[in-house]
């Protein structure tokens, strides 16, 4: 396939770069490789290379088929819809319990092996499907991207029932990972989600608490529609195929007091 690939890629601008960033991610992660015989490598003024990409071998082709098939089965879509419905209906105990199981079933170690954070990466189409690495921690940054895209794509289901879903939008004192905002006045609940990859000096519970604290400290609720009466704040931590959820519900009729909290129950 002939595609445009972003050649100067950073995690903080992935979503603003659109499809060209997606192709770069698929390229450097090994899902696609450069077809040397048919590519005419040319860069424009915004560092986008025009490339011909192919599936590199039968093993990766099998992975593509497995991933696509598993991601779009009716069961998978139905489970994602159920999880989003739990959030929007305030069934927070159910979400905090079932979301980690969804991650365990749907996320692959092939995509998220490391949990260390990183900085930026530079794409080089002449390096056999690899990147020039600006940080030794780039694999962890790739994992952050996968976790973010995984959860964001699930939340997009809310757009079919009258909500607007935004990602990495500048809000308050930072950039909120995901916000689910009502677009109609008869919908009075908003959801704010923040994600963290577990660091070496903390556990999953601590990382989820760190995510939840950031929502408050960075004022990620600023700019929500005035008719919102309930605000659900969700901190999610990840490590490999494991996840932990901490949630609090704030009630606008009570001065935005926290009226309930819940978290992923400990496994026996």
Order of H and E elements: EEHEEHHHHEEHEEEHEEE
Annotation, overall tally of beta strands: 12
Q: Please give the radius of gyration in angstroms.
A: 20 Å
Work out the helicity level: 25-40%
- The number of distinct helices, counting runs of at least 4 residues, comes to 7
Poorly predicted segments: 41-48, 114-139
Characterization of the model:
The chain is globular, with a radius of gyration of 20 Å. The chain has one domain. It has helices at residues 19-28, 58-71, 74-88, 92-106, 109-112, 138-155, 204-217; strands at residues 2-6, 8-10, 33-34, 48-54, 120-123, 131-133, 163-171, 174-182, 189-197, 230-239, 242-251, 257-263. The termini are far apart. Helix 3 (74-88) runs antiparallel to helix 4 (92-106). It is built from seven helices and twelve strands. A six-stranded mixed beta sheet has the order 7-8-9-10-11-12. A three-stranded antiparallel beta sheet has the order 1-4-3, with helices on one face.
Short synopsis of the structure:
This protein has 7 helices and 12 strands. The protein has 268 residues and is an alpha+beta fold. It has a 6-stranded mixed β-sheet with strand order 7-8-9-10-11-12. A 3-stranded antiparallel β-sheet has the order 1-4-3, with helices on one face. Strands 2-5-6 form a 3-stranded antiparallel β-sheet, covered by helices on one side.
Keywords for this entry:
single chain; 268 residues; alpha+beta; six-stranded mixed beta sheet; three-stranded antiparallel beta sheet; 7 helices
């Amino acid at each position: 396939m002939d595609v445009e690939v972003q050649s100067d890629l950073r995690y903080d601008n992935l979503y603003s770069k659109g499809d060209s960033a997606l192709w770069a991610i698929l390229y450097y992660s090994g899902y696609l490789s450069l077809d040397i015989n048919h590519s005419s490598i040319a860069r424009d003024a915004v560092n986008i290379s025009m490339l011909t990409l192919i599936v590199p071998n039968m093993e990766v082709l099998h992975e593509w088929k497995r991933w696509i098939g598993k991601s779009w089965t009716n069961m998978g879509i139905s489970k994602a819809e159920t999880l989003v419905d739990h959030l929007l209906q305030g069934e927070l105990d159910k979400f905090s319990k079932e979301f980690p199981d969804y991650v365990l079933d749907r996320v692959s170690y092939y995509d998220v092996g490391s949990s260390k954070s990183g900085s930026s990466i530079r794409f080089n189409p002449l390096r056999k499907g690899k990147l020039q690495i600006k940080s030794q921690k780039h694999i962890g940054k790739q994992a952050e991207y996968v976790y973010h895209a995984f959860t964001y794509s699930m939340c997009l289901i809310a757009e079919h029932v009258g909500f607007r879903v935004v990602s990495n939008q500048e809000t308050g004192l930072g950039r909120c990972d995901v916000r689910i905002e009502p677009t109609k006045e008869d919908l009075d609940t908003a959801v704010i989600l923040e994600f963290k990859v577990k660091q070496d000096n903390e556990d999953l519970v601590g990382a989820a608490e760190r995510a939840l604290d950031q929502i408050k400290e960075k004022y990620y609720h600023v700019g929500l529609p005035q008719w919102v009466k309930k605000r659900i704040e969700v901190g999610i931590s990840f490590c490999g195929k494991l996840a932990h959820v901490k949630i609090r519900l704030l009630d606008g009729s009570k001065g935005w007091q926290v009226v309930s909290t819940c978290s992923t129950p400990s496994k026996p």
